[in-house]
Specification:
495 residues; alpha/beta; Nucleotidyltransferase, domain 5; Helix Hairpins; 8 strands
Amino acid sequence: MSNQTASVQERLQHLQNHYSDRVSAFRIRLAETGLDRVLIALLDIGKNAHWATASLATGHELVKPHRLPTTRSGLNQFTQMVDQLIVEYEPKLVLLGHEPSGVYHEPWARALMSRYDAHIHGDAYPSFEYRFFNPYQVKLARLQTHLRHRKTDPRDLAAMLDLMLRGLGQPAFLPTNTELLVRQEVGFIRGQAKLLGHMESQLRQQIDRLWPGAIVNIQQFKKAHPDLPKPTPIIQTRPLQRDRLRVLLRYCPNPHDLCALSDQAILDLYREHVGRAGPALLNTLRTWADNAVLLPADVSTPLAEQLQRLFTQYLYAETLIEDGRGRLMPLVPKTAARHLPAIPGLGVYDAACYLAGLGSVPRFLHAGQVWAFAGFDPLQDGSGDRPERVGHLSKHGDPAFRDALYMMSYRVAQNYAPLTLTFLNAFDRGKSEVEATIHAAHRVNRICFHLMQHDEPFVSHSTDRLDAERVRRWAQFKRLKKRRKSRRTRGKRRR
C-alpha cells in the first residue's frame, strides 16, 4: 500500500470516527450527569421577535415554545425563566443554545454571556454550556424529521433540541470590541472596493463614448490588427490611475473644451494639478484630438457633466478606502493578528483580512478547521468500491476570506523562500498556477493560525542559499509562464 493511499484511508477513518466519537462521548456524559439533571434552554433568534423553550434532557418539555419581544423586557423574561427553572429542578448542567442569526443575535448573546459568565467558565453552580448552531445544521436536523421543507419557529426549536442532545454545534463566541472593529473596517473597505469596480466600468464606458480612442493598449492592438495604422491614444493601461487622464476627467471632462484651450493653457492646467508638463504631453493630446471623431458639442456637454460627477464619486470612494486602511493601522497591533505583517509579502491589511475571516481565534482548535471554514477543503463522497473518491473544493464559507487567503499566499510565495519553493515544487509537478497557489495557501494558513493561536512572533526560516534559489527559480517560472501564454495566444489565432 502506498503512503498516499494510507494517508487517504487514515483521513477517511478520522472523518468517519469524528462524528460518532463526539456524539457517543456527549451521550455518555449526559448519562453520567443524569438526564433529569440537565436543563436545556433554547432560543430561535429573529429580527423583531424571538422564540424560547426549555426542556430536560429526558425530553420532558418544561416550557412550551413561546414568543418573546427583542426588548429588555423580553431578555428579562428569558433569564427569569432560566433562573426559576434552575431553582425548581436543580440541574447540574444547563445547555443554552441558538443560531447566530446574522447580527440580530449579538445584543442578547453579549448580555447572556455577561450574565452567566461565571457559570460558563465553571466558577459558579450549575455549570453552563453556551452553544451556537449553524443554520444549515438546523435545516438538516429539521429535514431528518419531516423529509420535506416544513419550517416554523417551533420546528426550528425542536431541531435545535435534537442537535443539543447529540452534543453538536460549537461553543458560542463573539469577537472582542477591537476584533469587531477590524471586521467592520475590512467589510467597509471591501464594499467600497466593489462599488469602485462598478463605477470604473461606468467610467470606462462613458470615456469611450466622449473620448473615443483615448484609451488603447497599443501592444495588444498591434497584435490583433497588424495591418491597421497604429492608434494615437492619450493613455494605454490603468487609465483611471494615471494623472494624465485624471486631470482631464476632473477639470476638463468635455473634449471640445480641451480642443479650444491654447497650448499654454493646457500646460498650465497640468502644471497646477500634476506639477509637470511638457511638449511630449501636449503633442499626445493634440495628436489624439486631431484623429478622434467626437460627439457633437451639444451632446457632449451634458454627458461631460455626468462624467465629471461620476469621477468625483470615484475619487471619494478611493478616499474612503484609504481612510479605512488608515484606521486599521492602530487596530491590528492590538489583536492576535499583530504578528502576521512580519511575514514577507504581507501587510497590515492582509492581517486584518485574515482576522476578519476567522472572526475569533478560540473558536478553532487547529488550522485544518480554518481551512475547511474557508471552503478550501475538498468534497469527499466515497462509497462502495470507491471509498477514497475526493471531489473539487467545497467553497463553503465566505468567498472574500477565500480570496484574501489566496492573494496572501501568492504574495508570500513571491517573497518568502520556503513558500516560494513550496509553490514552485507544486508547479513543477504539473499543478497549474492556481493549484500551486492553493497548495502554498495551505501552508500560509498554518503559519498564520499558529502565530495567532500561540501569540508568537514570526521567525523566518529562510537562508541565503534558499533566497538565491528563490530568485533563480522564480525568474525561470516567469519565463515559462510567459512562453505558455504566448503559445495559447498563437493557438487561438490559428483557430
